[in-house]
Design goal:
The complex is a heterodimer of chains A (about 240) and B (about 250).
Chain A lengths: L4 H16 L10 H13 L2 H33 L1 H14 L8 H8 L3 H25 L3 H9 L4 H38 L4 H11 L3 H29 L7
Chain B lengths: L9 H20 L10 H13 L2 H33 L1 H14 L8 H8 L3 H25 L3 H9 L4 H39 L4 H10 L3 H34 L1
Helix pairs in contact in B: 2-10, 3-4, 3-6, 3-8, 5-6, 6-8, 8-9, 8-10, 9-10
Classes of the chains: A mainly alpha (about 240), B mainly alpha (about 250).
């Protein structure tokens, strides 16, 4: 595996530089110290608690945000009129950077899950809305005419005709939202909310524990990678031959 | 082809006005305490207050300036490294797996590391913005170069073009749409990181205005700041979209 050469080399040089004490800095730590700190954080359970908090935040926010996004997106996609009417409101709200809502969420919910989850939900809403909307717009008109002919109400029409057709796109939207959710959850914790992995990172920095800080940083990176790789694998398995029938 | 500004649909403006109306009624009726939700006129008044003593302009300039400096670094390094890595299949084999591992890492997670190394300084902020917006640009550039039609390289070889000419006449033009998409994402990331780092370092900017407003329970200032950030995001997005459209038109000619 040629891909492993670079990381191994980096770790090796980092270790040697660290052990020899070539770089003197508050931020300096090296791989063996970091591994020890990671083992410490594992054995006292702090890394597990923090991971659980961050993951619950990310999942909760993602469920709410992409739920609303998928609902609105399929509505705006199926009904041209609803899509047209909502256009300006969506264009006005969407460019608001999700992190700009951190202070507002802090004011409304105080510290805790509510604050992080609301910001994550806002961040996940827009990409899922846009993807679902454009997927629903591609649903063939004939299918919708069939549902008119069958006199299906809108709920059955959505569940029986539209959703099966756009499932692969929905999965892509959710995969995207999951990545965003983890990033935003960690960001809210780093910026303001005293819980989860982001806060553990900040505490390690403020108490001058670079070994612990790097341990958490590497763990956050691994978590993001696992999430992405897992969902990608699932998507490939599930939708190899999905033709939307 | 002439490009006309797309006017928003009347009905959709009515819906937006309706949403603003709901905000106003909710705020005035006191269903949601004014501590959290100010009536529109209060938020607008706060906006004018912030604008009148120059605070707002300084904040906008500060935020935009740091964002653009960091983004400029990211663009230079991202495109440069991206071209180097993208052109060499061997370099790609060694480096790409590491990049794929780093891609999902939240950019904000390096803020604590940057603070330990550089302190709560302007350098730290610009470093974080540059580092965070580097990834989209770098990965998109590599992707763009990978998808250059291989025949074009063969043609360049038979024409005995120099490496420089190959990059200038073949690689860049065909990779440009990908690179631009990466830059667009990078600029969004840099705005987000500019706001986040301001909130953490109290460097004067839009991020610190809204955090300060929340800490002092001043929802009018908070909403004013969020509106300005939304407008900034809107303008950036519109400019990039405009640029992208120009680029595509030039390409299709």
């Amino acid at each position: 595996m040629r891909g492993l050469l670079l990381p191994v080399l980096v770790l090796l040089i980092w270790q040697v530089v660290g052990v020899l004490g070539i770089v003197q800095s508050d931020a300096m730590s090296y791989p063996s110290q970091i591994a020890l700190a990671a083992a410490g954080a594992l054995s006292d359970g702090s890394i597990l608690t923090a991971t659980r908090q961050t993951i619950s935040t990310a999942l909760g926010g993602m469920a709410i945000g992409s739920g609303i996004g998928i609902a609105l997106g399929s509505w705006f996609g199926i009904s041209r009129r609803a899509g047209r009417l909502a256009q300006t409101s969506v264009e006005v709200l969407r460019p608001v950077p999700s992190v700009a809502l951190i202070p507002l969420a802090m004011l409304m919910f105080g510290y805790g899950y509510g604050m992080s989850i609301s910001v994550v939900a806002f961040a996940c809403l827009w990409p899922t809305l846009i993807i679902t909307k454009s997927a629903a717009q591609q649903v063939p008109r004939e299918l919708l005419e069939v549902s008119d002919g069958l006199e299906l109400n809108w709920a059955r029409r959505l569940v029986l005709i539209v959703l099966p057709k756009i499932v692969p796109n929905l999965f892509t939207a959710i995969r995207l939202a999951a990545g965003i959710a983890l990033i935003v959850a960690v960001t809210v914790e780093i910026t303001a909310n005293p819980m989860g992995l982001g806060y553990a990172l900040i505490v390690a920095q403020e108490t001058l524990h670079p070994d612990r800080m790097f341990a958490f940083l590497i763990w956050i990176g691994t978590l993001g990678w696992l999430l992405n790789a897992g969902l990608l694998l699932l998507q490939r398995r599930l939708f190899v031959r999905w033709d939307g029938a | 082809m002439t490009h006309r500004m797309r006017l928003p649909d009347i009905g959709s403006l009515v819906i937006l006005a309706g949403l603003l109306g709901i905000w106003e009624i909710t705020a005035l009726s006191g269903w949601i305490s004014p501590v959290f939700l100010p009536p529109i006129e209060k938020a607008v008044a706060a906006l004018f207050d912030l604008a009148s003593d120059g605070t707002l302009l300084r904040a906008i300039v500060g935020t935009t300036f740091r964002m653009l400096i960091g983004f400029a670094f990211a663009t230079l390094v991202g495109c440069g490294l991206g071209i180097l890595i993208g052109l060499s299949p061997r370099a790609r084999a060694y480096i790409e797996p590491s990049l794929e591992f780093l891609r999902p890492l939240p950019a904000s997670a390096i803020i604590p590391v940057a603070i330990l190394m550089l302190g709560l300084t302007k350098t730290m902020i610009i470093f974080v913005i540059a580092f965070g917006s580097l990834w989209p640009t770098l990965l998109a550039t590599i992707q763009g170069i990978k998808s250059v039609e291989p025949r074009l390289f063969e043609m360049a070889r038979t024409m005995e073009l120099s490496q420089r000419d190959v990059i200038r006449t073949i690689v860049l033009p065909s990779a440009l749409p990908d690179i631009f998409a990466g830059l667009r994402l990078g600029l969004t990331v840099s705005l987000i990181l500019a706001v986040v780092t301001e909130m953490m370092s109290a460097e004067p900017g839009l991020g610190s205005i809204i955090l300060q407003a929340a800490r002092s329970f001043n929802s009018s200032d908070l909403f004013a700041g969020v509106m300005v950030l939304g407008a900034l995001g809107f303008v950036i997005n519109a400019l990039m979209e405009q640029g992208q459209r120009r680029l595509m038109r030039w390409k299709s000619d």
